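Appendix B, record 7
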Amino acid sequence: MLHLVVLAHGLELLDGGVDDRFYIDTRNCHGKQTHRREHAVSAADIVGYDKALPALAVGKRLQNALVSVGGRKNMEILGCYEPSFRFMAEWWKQLYGESEGKNGIGIFPASVELTADLHSMGQYIQDGPRTLMETIVSFDEPCRGFTIPFEMGDPDGLNYLAGKELAAVCKTAAEAVKAAHISGGVPNIGISVPARDEAGFASLVCFFELACAISGYMSGVNPFDQPGVEAYKRNMFKMLGKPN
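Structure tokens (predicted):
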């Protein structure tokens, strides 16, 4: 079971709504949302299709709409507070770049490794051009625990963390970063997975692939071809003298 949460501050897509939240549980294909405004737009209205459409399409439709609002949100940053997620992020960039970057349109996919990139790319995400939206994958349960130790003399000034689980500190960092980025104008999509195991991996692969196909068709492109890739391959084969 995956949970998808879309957070944005002053999201123009929703007719000026402030701090709009969409909580989507992929088990039941129905979106739930809470608003501070009367006359809230329903999840089905946002998708524009039958209510039985998989709930993940709501998130992708919101994402595409962010792109269409003045063309301002045209880059998606994927991040995770788990270093071993690095190569999953590389696969995700290949999936979305190859599937959606066509006909002069498409969201540019990029990734960050957290917390390592918070002092480099974190600066850009927080204060750079407001063309970004962010997707953060989190795991509810760590694979193994690690308790931060106490050091005599407190040489690194970190004894205030002694006794805390490293996973809990990372979750706190994630919440702090999310709040900062949202306040800075970066819409945030959160995907939570129960555990970093075989089932969690399979769920993410199925989720991203189905969401990518839905998003591609919503954008008016064929997500299952790669004309740009074929263009460079033809040039390379010709230059290398490959027989026809």
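Remarks on this record: The helical segments are 43-47, 56-68, 86-100, 121-127, 166-183, 198-219, 227-239. The chain has a mean pLDDT of 77.
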